[in-house]
Fold this sequence. Notes:
The chain is α+β, with helices and mostly antiparallel strands.
Amino acid sequence: MIVDSDSVSSTGFTGRYRTATQREKDDPFIEVTFEAPGIIRQKGMPRGKDSPLRFGAALHCMPLTLGRSRLLFRAYFTGIPAFAKLLITLKPKFLTNLNSCKILEQDAGLITTQEDHFKRSKHALKDGYILLGSSDMFVKSYRQWLDKVGHGMPWFQGLATRSSNVDEHLAKVPVLPPNLDPISHRAGNYVETRYHRHVMHCPKTLNALHRVQALKKIMLGVAVVSITLSCGMSAASSQALSNKLTRRLLKALVPLIPISSLAAAGLAKLEQRFFVSFKRKAQMATETGL
């Protein structure tokens, strides 16, 4: 990771990065731009200089209050093979959205755990992190940028300094002890689910959830009706079972039982993906400071 030192100003900074493998192949860098106060743009060739694939992305972060932000993410690709374009087109949009939620939740679990840690330890960020030049350069530069210009922003927390309203807010929140029961924490698994963070705000994902729930109920109904009718017919007299129509109905109903049951179970599992929550990380659960 490289930050252009002459680009750092009150309006942001620019930089670039590439993996060790890309460096060995002398592949081009992925270009990164930070536009104050909360836009990250990337563009480049993720698969090397010999690949036709190009991509660009923009992440807009809008602070709502201390500890809460709204994120808007947009990405584009060029040079994608035709079969890959077809797969992307056929994939339901709500599945793409849920996968994006999964990526963000991996970070949210760590961030909220760090939040707990610094609330207990009272350390500045610079004293609580070991920032690696190979992977944390942009984080360090952003926090240093906040140290310089954060006084013009609400809730700012730089590498060495932070605004007084952060302390005022935290003073109202009880100190979070190690191994806190998640039901007492805003990052727990009981209220802040994926549904609250994304689904209820996204019409496409919300409509998909309603369809999944409706189809699950239909499959459960089919399973119950099939089992009831099959049992009723089997309990009937041998004369009824000899009836040609009865035998045909049984042949149709019996296979429906496992098919509809498995379909309902699969839909129930899919439904759970709309309500996933992130987890606080265990490795810092007992830390009280350096």
